[in-house]
Design a protein that fits this description.
This protein is mainly beta. It contains three helices and 18 strands.
Length: 327
């Protein structure tokens, strides 16, 4: 009875909080610091970003921290780098750092991560149109999270994040804080031995507006996502995972749908594919993705390729790499 009441009260509080922030964030601007929505894990990037309900993710602090208590692993960490263009030009790459999680017991989880992104150099001109040097934007985020499992199958999480964005024009960088709220629930399919399903919910980057160098208050790109995944083992040492994510950025009204699949064969090799449906002229738009990976004991190495999107989108035709471990 106590567990049931706790789940009911916690769920009600979660829905109240997410609904309130969603209504507050319905505005025409698309928010600042778009790097917060970039992919960090090559595994889920190969599935077109369907990450809200995919467990055993060492970078769950960026996707849905509640998943750290839903999967089969109790600790993990990873480093990532990208997106790289097809020429692997280091002058235009956005660098990432990494993150991880640790569950000291079956009910609590601690998560942390740091991201550093450096954008391409932008040429500047003076009032007469003559070259006046270059600017290179830099973005940073540092986050810590806590997860709590209630009962056997339900988990909630809260993540606090420090964000900093410097456009490289010599002005004072923007700084602020934001928070993520996550939830995840798992179940089993009785019709298939060993099969399980997961539903995940996340509200990301909620918090106060950030003050720009000119004193203007700018809103963060508050985003919500609802996802589901199905894990189907078949034969010996083979696993198929299918994931679906519905996402919405409340600032700007940008909605997207990601569908992806992952096939693990002989417990070591992994291939992935996915497609993202989005707005044609805003947000990430439509694009396809392919990915692959290799598992050697606790070590995971993954790569993802994003292609087929708008040719003017700098993220089109790029690669993302990540390497990590799960225990």
């Amino acid at each position: 009875m106590y567990i049931y009441q706790s789940i009911k009260h916690f769920t009600a509080a979660f829905l109240f909080a997410t609904g309130g922030y969603a209504a507050q964030a319905q505005t025409t601007d698309a928010g600042i610091m778009p790097f917060l929505g970039l992919e960090t894990n090559a595994r889920t990037a190969g599935m077109a970003g369907a990450a809200t309900a995919v467990a055993d993710n060492p970078l769950a602090v960026y996707a849905n921290a509640a998943l750290s208590l839903i999967g089969e692993r109790h600790a993990g960490g990873a480093l990532f780098s990208g997106p790289w263009n097809t020429a692997f030009d280091s002058a235009n790459v956005l660098y990432g750092v990494g993150g991880g999680f640790y569950t000291p017991d079956s009910r609590n989880a601690l998560l942390a991560g740091v991201r550093y992104f450096r954008g391409p150099s932008v040429g500047l001109t003076d009032e007469q149109g003559f070259p006046a040097g270059t600017a290179r934007p830099q973005d940073l985020s540092a986050e810590v999270g806590y997860g709590r499992r209630i009962g056997r199958n339900l988990a909630f999480s809260l993540t606090a994040r420090y964000v900093r964005s410097d456009q490289g024009f010599g002005e004072k960088p923007m700084q602020g804080v934001s928070f993520d709220i996550g939830a995840a629930y798992r179940g089993t399919l009785r019709a298939v031995e060993g099969a399980r399903w997961i539903v995940g919910l996340r509200l990301a980057d909620i918090g106060p507006d950030v003050k720009a160098s000119d004193g203007e208050r700018c809103g963060l790109p508050i985003r919500g996502s609802l996802g589901g995944s199905l894990h189907l083992p078949f034969r010996s040492n083979h696993m198929l995972c299918v994931a679906l994510d519905l996402s919405h950025q409340f600032r700007g009204g940008i909605t997207g749908l990601a569908a992806g699949a992952e096939y693990t064969f002989f417990r070591h090799g992994v291939v992935r594919g996915g497609y993202h449906f989005g707005h044609k002229n805003k947000g990430t738009g439509n694009y396809a993705s392919l990915g692959c990976g290799f598992i050697a004991g606790p070590v995971r190495c993954d790569a993802a390729w994003r292609f087929g999107g708008n040719k003017f989108n700098p993220l089109n035709d790029t690669f993302l790499f990540s390497v990590g471990f799960l225990l």
